[in-house]
């Protein structure tokens, strides 16, 4: 029986330390492009081998660097401690110690000269516009169907490119689009060639390349028109211009930069031998997978055989299940009939409760009760009104002037003007006045007045 908790070594891929470091280095070198790095030199060491070892640092970090002899021989100055430099480098890993480092391909001081200033200004301008952004970089096809090479048909670069392509993957067709690679006519021809390659529909990737030279020789690849043509290309473009120490604006705009034409060709196509090794590995994996699958099916078939039983047992089980279903069906029918009977009884009771005679009797009783309550409310309302009227009469009698006259007082008025006399100054001797009593009225004449 297979132990699934501890897989065999055929199911695990075990790395040695050297294999791990080698794959880590390959990942770093293949997934990170050549970079421009700026910083200050420190710990500069120049051993007898001719290689340079130093540390590049800024205010916050530092990184170990190496520049091999064949590269530093092209540097026109001797690096000094504390010197500020600009490196064109690739990220790598030193397998012997597992140390992360960068390999310098080119070193220069701060830009100098008119061409360098123009180069820096255009580089800054295009960078601000986003032409160098990684987001705009187009991915290269893993296996190109047709490669277009934009270069001089007579230069050494095309021979190197074709040689590498033939060696690595000879089955891929290659078409050379001839252009001048230096001089006044070079930039327009390159722009036209890129446009033609995009319109013809033959290629799925382009290689823009030429051999090394001075900055003046390579200036066509620093022209703004060429940079914008590369950026606007719908086809991915690999740029391999000059030697490893040579950098152009086209390198930054291109979807991938290679240090040399030969390196560009190597980046364009896979190694046929590697693919063959992969196919051999896939063949082994397929055989192992098929073997595991057959073993699984054999185990599954064995389990099915163990579970297989005589048909009579199956029939007996089905017969017993049928009897149980029949019994459950009968019980369910009886329950349904009982529920229907109960519902019928409830409906009859509800119907009797809503019979018209019963309803009329209930309404008649409600009318009698309403009449009784109405008579009772009328009598109570009349009694309250009578009581309120009596209170009002008593209060009116209390406030009436006639009640004052009952106590012996009189209401004196002028017989002519009928004005009430409340002051002796309102009359003169001989005036005729009227005195209103509780019962009757007196007509009097004033004989004299007392103050």
- Which structural class do the helices and strands define? alpha/beta
> How big is the Rg?
59 Å
**What is the chain-wise order of helices and strands?**
HEEEHEEHEHEHEHEHEHHHHHEEE
Main sheet summary: 5 strands, mixed, barrel
Helical stretch tally: 12
The 3D shape can be described as elongated
Oligomer: single chain
Q: What's the CATH architecture name of the largest domain?
A: 3-Layer(aba) Sandwich
Q: What's the total number of strands?
A: 13
* Widest sheet, order of strands: 1-2-3-5-4
Q: Helix amount, in percent? A: 40-55%
CATH secondary-structure class of the largest domain? Alpha Beta
Low-confidence stretches: 1-7
Taking all residues together, what is the mean pLDDT? 85
Secondary structure blueprint with pairings:
Blueprint: H1 17-31, E1 35-45, E2 52-57, E3 62-67, H2 69-72, E4 84-94, E5 99-108, H3 114-128, E6 147-151, H4 156-168, E7 174-178, H5 186-200, E8 205-210, H6 224-232, E9 237-241, H7 249-253, E10 256-257, H8 261-268, H9 272-307, H10 311-353, H11 356-399, H12 401-406, E11 411-414, E12 432-436, E13 441-445
Parallel strand pairs: 3-5, 6-7, 6-8, 8-9, 9-10
Antiparallel strand pairs: 1-2, 1-4, 2-3, 4-5, 11-12, 12-13
Helix pairs in contact: 4-8, 5-6
């Amino acid at each position: 029986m297979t132990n699934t908790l501890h897989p065999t070594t055929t199911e695990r891929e075990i790395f040695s330390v050297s294999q791990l470091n080698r794959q880590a280095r390959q990942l770093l070198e293949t997934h990170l492009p050549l970079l421009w790095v700026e910083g200050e030199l420190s710990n500069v060491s120049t051993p007898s081998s001719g290689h340079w070892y130093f540390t590049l640092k800024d205010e916050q970090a530092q990184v170990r660097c190496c520049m091999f002899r064949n590269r530093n021989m092209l540097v026109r100055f001797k690096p000094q401690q504390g010197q500020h430099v600009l490196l064109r480098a690739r990220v790598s890993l030193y397998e012997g110690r597992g140390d992360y480092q960068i390999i310098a391909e080119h070193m220069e001081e701060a830009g100098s000269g008119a061409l360098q200033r123009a180069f820096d200004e255009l580089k800054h301008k295009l960078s601000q516009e986003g032409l160098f952004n990684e987001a705009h970089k187009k991915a290269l096809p893993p296996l190109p169907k047709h490669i277009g090479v934009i270069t001089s048909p007579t230069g050494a670069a095309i021979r190197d490119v074709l040689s590498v392509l033939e060696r690595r993957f000879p089955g891929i067709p290659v078409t050379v689009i001839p252009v001048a690679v230096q001089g006044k006519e070079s930039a327009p021809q390159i722009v036209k060639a890129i446009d033609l390659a995009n319109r013809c529909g033959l290629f799925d990737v382009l290689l823009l390349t030429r051999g090394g030279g001075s900055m003046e020789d390579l200036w066509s690849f620093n022209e703004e028109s060429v940079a914008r043509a590369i950026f606007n290309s719908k086809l991915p473009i690999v740029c391999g211009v000059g030697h490893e120490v040579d950098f152009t604006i086209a390198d930054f705009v291109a979807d991938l930069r290679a240090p040399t034409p030969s390196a560009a060709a190597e980046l364009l196509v896979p190694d046929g031998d590697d693919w063959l090794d992969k196919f051999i590995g896939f063949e082994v994996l397929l055989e192992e997978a098929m073997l595991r699958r057959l073993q699984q099916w054999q185990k599954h078939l064995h389990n099915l055989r163990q579970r297989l039983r005589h048909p009579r047992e199956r029939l007996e089980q089905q017969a017993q299940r049928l009897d149980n279903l029949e019994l459950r069906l009968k019980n369910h029918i009886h329950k349904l009939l009982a529920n229907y009977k109960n519902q019928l009884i409830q409906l009859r009771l509800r119907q009797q409760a809503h019979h018209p005679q019963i309803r009329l009797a209930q309404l008649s009783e409600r009318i009698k009760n309403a009449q009784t309550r109405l008579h009772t409310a009328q009598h109570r309302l009349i009694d309250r009104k009578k009581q309120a009227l009596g209170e009002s009469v008593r209060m009116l009698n209390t406030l009436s002037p006639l009640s004052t006259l009952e106590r012996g007082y009189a209401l004196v008025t002028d017989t002519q003007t009928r004005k009430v006399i409340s002051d002796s100054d309102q009359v003169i001797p001989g005036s005729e006045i009227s005195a209103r009593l509780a019962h009757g009225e007196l007509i009097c004449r004033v004989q004299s007045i007392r103050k």
